[in-house]
Amino acid sequence: MKIQINGNKVEMPDEVRTIEELLVYYKLDDKPVIVEWNKEIVDKDNHTKTVLTEEDQVEIVHFVGGG
């Protein structure tokens, strides 16, 4: 399936079907992130329920510490 992540078209493996699986795939599942899916913010409680489909647009913002 092809989706757009942070402005880049990406071919995702078949096992990535939900936002939660997408975050696991990118190793962001244990980090504080905000996910926008088709221009709507997805609450963390809904990451397992939100199913990705062809041509979805996903924006992932994660926080990086520093000083």
Describe the structure.
- It contains one helix and five strands; from the N terminus they run ββαβββ.
- A five-stranded mixed β-sheet has the order 2-1-5-3-4, with no helix packed on it.
- Helix content is 10%, strand content 33%.
- It has one helix at 19-25; strands spanning 2-5, 8-11, 33-37, 40-42, 57-62.
- Strand 1 (2-5) and strand 2 (8-11) form a beta hairpin.
- With 67 residues, it is mainly beta.
- The protein has a single domain, classed as Beta-grasp domain (Ubiquitin-like (UB roll)).
- The mean pLDDT is 95.
Element layout with pairings:
Layout: E1 2-5, E2 8-11, H1 19-25, E3 33-37, E4 40-42, E5 57-62
Pfam families: ThiS
Protein name: Thiamine biosynthesis protein ThiS
InterPro entries: Beta-grasp_dom_sf, Mopterin_synth/thiamin_S_b, Thi_S, ThiS/MoaD-like
